[in-house]
Amino acid sequence: MSPDILAVHADRRARVLRALGDGAMVLPAAPEVRIGRDQDLPYRVDPDLYYLTGYTEPEAVAVLTPGTEAPFTLFVRPRDPDRELWTGRRGGVEAACEVFGADQAFPIAELPARLPALLAGYDTIYARFGGGRDDVEALLRRILVDARRTRPRAGRGPQALVDPGRLLDDMRLVKDAHELRLMREAATISVAAFREAAAVIRPGAGEWEVQAALDAGFRRRGADGPAFETIVGSGENATVLHYVRNDRPMRAGELVLLAAGALYGRYAADITRVFPVSGRFSGPQRALYDVVRAAHDAAIAAARPGAAFDAVHDAAVAVLVAGLVELGVLTGDVEALRADETAYKAYFPHRTSHWLGLDVHDVGDYARDGAPRRLEPGMVLTVEPGLYIPATALGAPEALRGVGIRIEDDVLVTAEGPEVLTCELPVDADAVAALVAGE
Q1: Distance CA 329, CA 389 (A)
Q2: Which burial class, exposed, middle or buried, applies to 135 when counting CB atoms under 10 A from its CB (0-12, 13-18, 19+)?
Q3: Residue 294: its H or E element
Q4: More confident residue, 302 or 4
Q5: Which of 82, 150, 288, 360 is the 20 to 30 Å CA partner of 260?
Q6: What string of H, E and C letters represents the secondary structure of 10-77?
């Protein structure tokens, strides 16, 4: 790890240590996942652990104890030449201190013996249950139960468990300069891969071919891989929000929806575009596309500092509902339909935005004290309005049935207004169609 990045993680830990007060924090690595007898799924590090330490190996546990001589302790897998022959080199206890800046480090096998003493002087433990590390959770339960029994006489010991998100979520929600560099690069890589994948689109080609082009484009440019399972939905498959089978040949005259993003430096991009398989939108397809495009533009314009988070969604809904009425999908008064979510939810069933960062759906509350959260500079969110007309929507014009359109970009809130990190990928219908034609 470079000195600059080491300093970034150290600064974050310092902020948390100051905020902990009479509490200590325990952050375990995400568990390794195995299917069948001996197949391990690709490992993904726990975002909170990575955010504060940069540590990426499985089994680790970080412990933050403010006010001590060694406030940052790492428990890690030790070096093991036999296992390293099969699964790759480990940093071990030595690297935990020398590379990642731990004040002290121990083999993970020593966690049960050492953790009770590390936590004994604190009233509150910040730790998350339900993350899959049953070994750590069982140990923390035992520590809390023991403290309940001994605290009346000892006058010390943990008595409360608090989710670490209470301190970490707001920190992670507002991105620092290091994070924004990584997210801009993830966006740049994703845009380039989308351009390449668009050239693969043609009648008779498989959805899987487009997926392969996207995923290869990410890796070829230095990304860790896709940030989430790539979506390539042609024809009616585009009306399935998280369609990932990607096993159907594309047909002339259809549209194909691509939703994907690169993971770079463990930060995610998230883009959606819709392309005409034959290189040209039909009149009805273009009309529906232009409604979604207008909603996309209105929602991005609403993503300004001080605006309510819900203002982004409300801006999109206003345009989408008016467009559905104009296209004959809905009938009635536009304002009344906007106010009644059930009136349009069959065609726009999801929200317009989510936070983006180390997680594709990143941490952070969308509301506080019953009111929508206000946007601040440094927040990154997606803007992704869509319209999905089911094939069974008999009240909709026949030419629109089975058509799904979503347009998604990644937006950074700045003091001056919204900055679209993925703006180099066109959204204009003619420019999108030109990508399929290789222009």
Answers
A1: 9
A2: middle
A3: helix 283-302
A4: 302
A5: 288
A6: HHHHHHHHHHHCCEEEEEECCCCCEECCCEECCCCCCHHHHHHHCCCCCCCEEEECCCCCCCEEEEEC
Cβ atoms of residues 177 and 197 within 8 Å:
no
Among residues 227, 166, 205, the alpha carbon closest in space to that of 25 is found at 166
Tokens of 185: 């690069």
Does residue 55 contact residue 45 with C-beta atoms inside 8 Å? yes
Q: Helices 177-198 and 429-436, interaxial angle, to 10°?
A: 60
Name the nearest CA neighbour of 160 among 22, 8, 261, 16. 22
- In this predicted structure, the answer to whether residue 148 has a pLDDT above a threshold of 90 is no
For residue 3, name the pLDDT band (cuts at 50, 70, 90). Answer: confident
Global pTM exceeds 0.90: yes
pLDDT at 1 over 90: no
Domain ranges for the chain:
3-168, 174-436
Residue pLDDT, tens place only, 222-254: 999 999 999 999 999 999 999 999 999 999 999
Residue 420, C-beta contacts closer than 8 angstroms, at least 6 positions apart = 300, 409, 410, 411, 412
- Please identify, in words, the CATH class of the domain defined by 3-168: alpha beta
By residue count, the chain amounts to 439
What is the CA angle 39-42-48, rounded to 5?
Answer: 135
Q: Can you tell me the distance from the alpha carbon of 425 to that of 195, in angstroms, rounded to the nearest whole number?
A: 8
Question: From CA 264, how far away is CA 422, in angstroms rounded?
Answer: 14
CATH tag, 174-436: 3.90.230.10
Give the ranges where 65-206 is alpha helix by DSSP (H): 81-87, 92-98, 111-119, 134-154, 165-173, 177-198
Count the helix, strand and coil residues of the chain and give each as a percent rounded to the nearest 5. 40, 20, 40
Q: What is the mean pLDDT of residues 406-421?
A: 98
Residue 5 structure tokens: 């990045």
Per DSSP, the three-state class of 90 is coil
Partnered with residue 278 across adjacent β-strands are none
367 pLDDT more than 70? yes
Contact of 237 with 274, CB cutoff 8 Å = no
Local structure of residue 408 (DSSP, 8 states)? B
Q: Name residue 231's beta-bridge partners.
A: 259
| End-to-end Cα separation, the chain, in angstroms | 42
Taking alpha carbons only, the member of 263, 256, 267 closest to residue 211 is 256
